[in-house]
Specification:
5 helices; 2 strands; 129 residues; mainly alpha; transmembrane; two-stranded antiparallel sheet
């Protein structure tokens, strides 16, 4: 017998699977000139599988997954804006970094939007049962 708690846990599992698909797709688009095509194909194959087997409301996890590369860019540019220097064993290494705020804000917006859409769709689906 499947309980409500087990079913809700499974729905969150599908959401996390879609989150990974969205992240893979966004990373594939960002790296289109190198390994991006492989990542996009992998994301499409996973999406087809999830559409056939998964919980429909969890598709919103794909929207939240698009935020993952933006969070990574915000982390990489955490010392910016401007020139940031680090000491290494061989001397000093300097890089120009962007401000992380736009990447963080865009990522947060996509992540929260995907999360809220999932909750709204899930609540609507439970209301019709």
């Amino acid at each position: 017998m499947v309980t409500v708690r087990d079913r809700r846990g499974a729905e969150w599992g599908w959401f996390l699977a879609w989150l990974a698909v969205g992240g893979c797709l966004a990373l594939g688009l960002a790296a289109l000139l190198s390994v991006g095509v492989v990542l996009i194909v992998l994301a499409v194959v996973a999406a087809v599988f999830l559409l056939r087997k998964g919980h429909r409301a969890a598709v919103a996890g794909g929207l939240a997954g698009l935020a993952l590369p933006l969070f990574h860019l915000a982390y990489l540019n955490r010392g910016g804006p401007g020139t940031v220097c680090h000491s290494t064993a061989g001397g000093q290494s300097c890089t120009d970094e962007y401000t992380p705020v736009p990447f963080l804000a865009g990522g947060a917006l996509l992540f929260v939007a995907g999360f809220l859409v999932f909750l709204l769709l899930d609540r609507r689906r439970r209301g019709t049962e």
